[in-house]
Amino acid sequence: MARRQASTTPHPQTGTPRLAVDGVTLEYRTPRQVVKATQRVSFDVQEGDRYVLLGPSGCGKSTLLKAVAGFLSPVEGEIRLDGQRVAGPGPDRVVVFQEFDQLPPWKTVKQNVMFPLLASRTLGRREAEQRALATLEKVGLTAFADAYPHTLSGGMKQRVAIARALAMQPRILLMDEPFAALDALTRRKMQEELLALWEEVRFTLLFVTHSIEEAQIVGNRVLLLSPHPGRVRAELGCETDSLTSLGSAATKARTRQIHRLLFEHERPS
Ligand SMILES: Nc1ncnc2c1ncn2[C@@H]1O[C@H](COP(=O)(O)OP(=O)(O)OP(=O)(O)O)[C@@H](O)[C@H]1O
Questions:
Q1: Which residue intervals define the domain ABC transporter in the entry (predicted)?
Q2: Pairing between β-strand 232-237 and β-strand 221-225 as defined by DSSP bridges
Q3: Closest CA to 8 of 43, 48, 44
Q4: Rounded Cα distance, 252 and 100, in Å
Q5: Best residue for ligand 1 mutational test, from 53, 61, 231 (most atoms within 8 Å of Cβ)
Q6: Directed axis angle between helix 154-167 and helix 125-138, to 10°?
Q7: Which residues contact 256 (CB under 8 A, 6 or more apart)?
Q8: Distance of CA 57 from the midpoint of ligand 1 (Å)
Q9: Lowest-confidence range among 41-55, 62-76, 169-183?
């Protein structure tokens, strides 16, 4: 696969990142206890980044994603999208759901892409149809606009799911372990498909995984989080990686480095 160059630059006029997570502490409060999920986590995502949150189970990756989506408010710090504080959910941030097979099977591809636009009352029927067709063209699915999901491959269903999200014209796409339940070969195929689509459309992506390998394949930047509660351990650039360089010495060295950064603090001294 060809090398992927991200256009990861701050906004040319303002210098503002697409997403700023600034000293964010997140907690769950139940009547019996307070669970601290993350502690003072900071990172910036630039337009065109494929930004990956990587860390062991329970380090607060999903919680961070929920907070960016606006479903949970920080108890400390702030999340900003293009400089505006995130105060709740909004159509400018779209979560691409995990199970691509959950596309309603009775709706055609075009109807599936139109659905969120209509359900959120973003557009009327005629405009929604035009937007859906324009988005399908962008992701190379025009020929399948009237097809039903069961006639598509897994990779194409993922394209439809992402097209559905992109049709809302979000500023950032959010994906939480979307390939976790897949077998290894299908997972690789879906990663490939995601990267190919990014090549074509250059959306901004925030992607959660606990797979070191997947983080390096998908991400151009990877944030390493410590075990519970999540704190930032390091941020790495993975721009030189590709699916074909997976077994390379550089990738192996980075995998060792990530292991060390994630787990060396846990070893007894
Ligand atoms: N609804 C909730 N109520 C209370 N505690 C929660 C809730 N959801 C998550 N937690 C706790 O918050 C911490 C962070 O959870 P989170 O799901 O964000 O981690 P994660 O890194 O995404 O883990 P995984 O990779 O296993 O999904 C964990 O200790 C978890 O038990």
A1: 19-252
A2: antiparallel
A3: 48
A4: 31
A5: 61
A6: 130
A7: none
A8: 8
A9: 169-183
Note if the pTM is more than 0.80: yes
Amino acid at site 124: G
- The residue contributing the CA closest to ligand 1 atom 14 is 60
Give yes or no for a contact between 175 and 208, defined as CB atoms under 8 angstroms apart: yes
Q: What share of the chain is helix, strand, coil (3-state, %, to 5)?
A: 40, 25, 40
3 token code pair: 């090398």
The two tokens of residue 149 are 């999901």
Report residue 152 CA to chain centroid gap: 23
Paired with 51 in beta bridges are 206, 221
Q: Which amino acid is at 51?
A: Y
The ipTM, to two decimals, is 0.97
